[in-house]
Amino acid sequence: MKTNILNQTDVDNPFRVWSAACSSGEEPYSIGMLLSDKLKSGKWEIVASDISSRVLDKSKEGLYPIDKSSKIPDEYLKKYCLKGVKSKEGYFKISDSIRDNIQFKYINLNEPFPNLGKFSLVFLRNVMIYFDRETRIKLIDQIASILNSGGYLFIGHSETLLEITNKLVMVRPTIYSKK
Ligand SMILES: C[S@@+](CC[C@H](N)C(=O)[O-])C[C@H]1O[C@@H](n2cnc3c(N)ncnc32)[C@H](O)[C@@H]1O
Q1: In a domain, 90, yes or no
Q2: From 29, 127, 128, 134, mutation site for ligand 1 pocket: most ligand atoms within 8 A of C-beta
Q3: In total, how many domains does the chain have?
Q4: Does some domain include residue 104?
Q5: 10 C-alpha to ligand 1 centroid (Å)
Q6: Which domain holds residue 153?
Q7: Counts for the chain of helices (H) and strands (E), in that order
Q8: Distance 3 CA to ligand 1 centre (A)
């Protein structure tokens, strides 16, 4: 019988997600809205990281042009986003209820990870394309070691872990699980 990974959480053990190479923050904020909506009984936290302090600063601010809001479901816009006024006219801001559960960090994926704890989900989308095979092998090895058993790694559509690891199993293209 399959267990729902979202049920593997309680007040003492928040559901933990890492958005590695989060760029300007759309990914961790989208995940945060989903978790806030779907994980009604549990706590969650997201680590969002990038190598660029410029994009990290933008991510932390959580302020986006209003035209980007068309991709967010209306229900989530109402619950988790605030319309900008005065100097912020034409922008929307992600609400504190989402931002407060996300830690933004500088992390270079080519180096040994700092102590991050364990995660149920890791998003590593569209960044391995910049790395050579040896770097990918080391990176995925480190990620496998911080994924919980039964956890999932998400990669980009143009990426693969073929001949990179035997510690993770492909469940469908772009999604890998740790046994
Ligand atoms: C194409 S964006 C992908 C953003 C996001 N994951 C997505 O799929 O929409 C690539 C990101 O990887 C970051 N990056 C590049 N090299 C990196 C490294 N060595 N460590 C951490 N992040 C890196 C860049 O700063 C950029 O924000």
Answers
A1: no
A2: 127
A3: 1
A4: yes
A5: 31
A6: 5-60+99-177
A7: 5, 10
A8: 32
Whether the CB of 109 sits within 6 Å of ligand 1: yes
Residue 79 lies in a domain: no
Task: For residue 85, tell me if it sits in a domain.
Answer: no
The strand ranges marked E within 40-161 are 44-50, 63-65, 81-83, 91-94, 102-106, 119-124, 147-155
Any ligand 1 atom below 6 A from CB of 52: yes
Which CATH number belongs to the domain containing residue 22 in this structure? 3.40.50.150
Atom of ligand 1 nearest to the CA of 52: 25
Report whether residue 51 contacts ligand 1, using a CB cutoff of 6 Å. Answer: yes
pLDDT tens string for the chain (179 positions)? 456 777 766 667 899 999 999 999 999 999 999 999 999 777 999 999 999 999 999 999 999 999 999 999 999 999 999 999 999 999 999 999 999 999 999 999 999 999 999 999 999 999 999 999 999 999 999 999 999 999 999 999 999 999 999 999 999 999 999 98
Atom 17, ligand 1: which residue's CA is nearest?
51
Contact present, 44 and 15 (Cβ < 8 Å): yes
Q: Which residue, among 130, 124, 128, has the nearest Cα to 153 in the 3D structure? A: 124
d(CA 38, CA 9): 12
- The answer, as to whether pTM is greater than 0.85, is yes
